[in-house]
Each structure stands twice: as C-alpha cells, then as structure tokens.
Amino acid sequence: MSLNPPSLRPDIAPAARLSDGPARAALGRGGQPTIGMVSLGCPKALVDSERILTRLRAEGYAISPAYQGADAVIVNTCGFLDSAKAESLDAIGEALAENGRVIVTGCLGAEPDYITGAHPRVLAVTGPHQYEQVLDAVHAAVPPSPDPFIDLLPASEVRLTPRHYAYLKISEGCNHHCKFCIIPDLRGRLVSRPAHAVMREAERLVENGVRELLVISQDTSAYGVDLRHAEERGHRAHITDLARDLGSLGAWVRLHYVYPYPHVRGLVPLMADTAAAGSGVLPYLDIPFQHAHPDVLRRMARPAASARTLDEIAAWRASCPGITLRSTFIVGYPGETEAEFQYLLDWMDEAQLDRVGCFQYENVKGARANDLPGHVPDDVKQDRWDRFMQKAQAISAARLAARLGTRQWVIIDSVDAEGATCRTMADAPEIDGNLFIDTGFDTLSPGQIIPVTVDEASDYDLWGSPA
Question: Fold identical between 165-401 and 407-466?
C-alpha cells in the first residue's frame, strides 16, 4: 500500500498507460484486428476513450493490453496546459517507438500541425470527442474483419476504471469564458445529455456491479440549461433533479466540477442523510474556486467572482455538517500581488476546505490571460505554490485528526497481502486520500462498502478497522 505524497496535485494528468480495459472484457476471437489505447488527461477524456473502445469492440476489433500486441495504437491526448502537451507528445513518441502505427485524438488533436511537426509519422490526428473521425482513422489503418456469427455488441461498455466505480459524463463543453481557459474553444459550448439517457446509462452501470458513480462535466451546475431543463420520459434535465434520481439507484453518487451558483444549495439537503444510510448523493462538493481575491477573480473573468463564497460554505455546512469540500486554485496568475496572495491564504484559514489542489499558472496557447500585464516570475510562483500547499496540508491534517474515533463508510478499492486500500465518502479516486485497513481485512474484497472506525490519521490519509 502506498501513501499520498505531501505534494499531491490532482491537476496533473496521470502517467501515460496502455489501458488495461480489455482485462475486464475478453480480448476477442482469434484473427481479429487489434487496437491499443493510451488515455491521458482528465476523467472526461477517459470517458471518451471508453466510448471509442466500446465502438471498436462492437465492430469486431479486439483490444490489446500491450503495444506489441496491437495492429495500431490510439493515443487520447490532453492539451490544456503546456506541461500536459509535452506529456502527450512524449506518449505519442513512446507509442511510435514501441508500435509504430499511431492514431492521435483528444484535446491536443485540435492542433494537428503541432503534433505532426513533432511526430510526422502518426497515421491520423482527430480532435476532442470526434468519435466518428477516430473510427474512420482506425478503419483506414486497420480494416475491420467482423464475423456476424460471433461478434456481438458487448453486454456492457468497455471501461478503463475498476469494476466498482465509473465516470458518468452528463454534458460536454462550457459556456464560460475564463481568461486562462481554452476549453470552450476545444470542446465547444455546453451540450447536455437528456436526463433519461443519463439515467439509462447509470442504471446499466449499477446493474453491472458499479457501486460508485462519479458525475463529471465541464460545468455540472449548468447541466440542462441548454435544454431549458426539459422533462422527458419522467426525468428532468436539472442537476438537482438528476442528482436525486441518481441517488435512488443504491450506489454512491459523487459530484465533480460544481460551480457555486445559488441553486447549488438545493443539492446539499440531498446529501444530509447519506452519511447515515451509506448510499445516495455523497456529502461531497468539488468546486473550482480558483482564487479568493475579488480582483484576481475579476481578471480571471470567473463566473462566480461576486459570490460570497464564505457565506455559501457556512450555509452548506449548516445544512449538511458532514459535507466535504474540495477545490483547486491557481497561484501566480498575471498581476497577482503578494497582498492578493496573502488574502487567499487568509481566506483558506477561514474556509477550512477539506481537499485542495493547486496549479502554478501557465500560459496556454489561445488563452486571453496570456496578454494580461504583470506576469509573475517562475521563482515567485514556486514560492507561492509551496506556501499554499503548506497551508493546505496543515488544514488537511487538522481536519483528518478530528475524525479519530469516528465511524465512516468506506468503499474498498483493492486488497493485497498488506491490507485493504479504501476511500471514505470524502475521497474521490486518484485525487484525494485513502483509508487503510491493516487488520481484519481477510474477508474483504474490492467494491464492498463497509463501516470503519478511524484509528489513526496523517496529513492526507486515515487508518481504521472494520466497525
């Protein structure tokens, strides 16, 4: 079992990997053309990878868990930050070296000349969520060889997450124009899925053993705005109604990327009873505040710049005392003064957020923030990041220490010879902490949800024993 490092940063994309999704779905019959997948970046991109692999499986392709076993490899890229672009180029280079036949898709695919300039040997480049173009590129590179007597639509989608949790994408795109962000340019304006379609997918996932649904989008709070919150087939396209419907399925429902609009208050009462029941809408809000100083927020063109966030936080905690608040912040934004940064640190002392990540500001090609005056030197950004994370770590340690002796529901992610690695309701996979069980774990298995008594706490993690 491994512990979270003190510098845990949820904004950094996971390391490039050839997906092991086929381990959860048969590789296929002999003689099938075979495709590999490397998925980079955020969970929204991971969902895109899953959809591509599901379509390929339905067309008679097998999925390879290794470069050497694949007729071609798809690399789904991240292109939000320069550091993510560099990682994507490295992953493309590795796939070319190991396999030689590479198709590139994803956010960085919006800059095909940038990719082909570095790697002219790639077979094709497509942009984000361009499923049909990716399939066309695969067909051109590796023609399908379907057998209508054997190949059937998979009983469930190919997934790249463990069997017991899944990401549920409810919308694509974003209507905001934050100056540091190019997501609307890459992925377009908000397009919400009909609520009945989201529910059908969620029901199918739960039927297939998923115990935790991680709801994702670019702006979860805005879900259904473009549909005018239409009701169809008994389900209304509004985030509060959707959360209530999802919470009735008997699984954990975790909400990510929630902007603090006033109507978010309607979500919090849904969370209040979950801590005792062990299932439903989790008392967990992932809200990207990005900063606290009003002038910095104004320069960012953040949609919640005028919100009285401390008052909102107090109201959420009054309505649901066990709620966990997670957020991300940017330090070193153009024009940020030492006084504005200190304001953010003081705000953190008051807000006492449970889970916090932090970016150092980077220019992004095409972002309006690039042209702002007063860019902060790299050494100052690093110093502010260090000070911010020191503050966040101290707050995390104190809030986790307050859980000693309490009873927490946990979901078990893995079990090995050393013990069980779990997550409480306060912990999203891969970006938050863990709870470890190192005694009495012999009968436990991944996907179980059990009560645990907390025995020990560190800066980011907990230890406990089955209650």
Answer: no
Q: Give the residue from 4, 1, 16 showing the smallest Cα distance to 356.
A: 4
Q: By C-alpha distance, which of 399, 389, 406 is closest to 455?
A: 406
Neighbour-count burial for 312-337, b at 16+ CB within 10 Å, e otherwise = bbeebeeebebbbbbbbbbbbbbebe
CB 63 within 8 A of CB 53: yes
pTM of the model: 0.80
Q: What are phi and psi of 54, to 5 degrees?
A: -65, -45
Binding-site residue set for [4Fe-4S] cluster: 42, 78, 107, 174, 178, 181
Instruction: Give the pLDDT score at 32.
Output: 81
What are 349-392's pLDDT values in tens digits? 999 999 999 999 999 888 999 999 999 999 999 999 999 999 99
Distance (Å, whole) CA 410 – CA 110: 40
pLDDT digits (tens, 9 = 90+) for 98-124: 999 999 999 899 899 999 999 999 999
Instruction: Name the helix (H) or strand (E) containing 244.
Output: helix 239-247
Q: How many CA atoms lie within 13 A of 160 on its CB side?
A: 26
Q: Count of CB atoms within 10 A of residue 267's CB?
A: 21
List of the chain residues with pLDDT < 50: 1-27, 149-151, 153, 155
* Residues in the annotated binding site: 42, 78, 107, 174, 178, 181
Q: What residue segments make up the domains of the chain, in order of their start? A: 21-141, 165-401, 407-466
Q: Tell me if residue 236 falls in helix, strand or coil.
A: strand
Q: What angle do CA 352, 362, 115 make, to 5 degrees?
A: 130
- The pLDDT value given to residue 20: 41
**Which numeric CATH code is attached to 407-466?**
2.40.50.140
Pairing mode of beta strands 165-169, 212-216: parallel
- In this structure, whether the domain defined by 21-141 belongs to CATH 1.10.60.30 is answered with no
Looking at domain 165-401, its CATH superfamily turns out to be tm_1862 like domain (3.80.30.20)
Specify whether the CB–CB gap between 194 and 227 falls below 8 A: yes
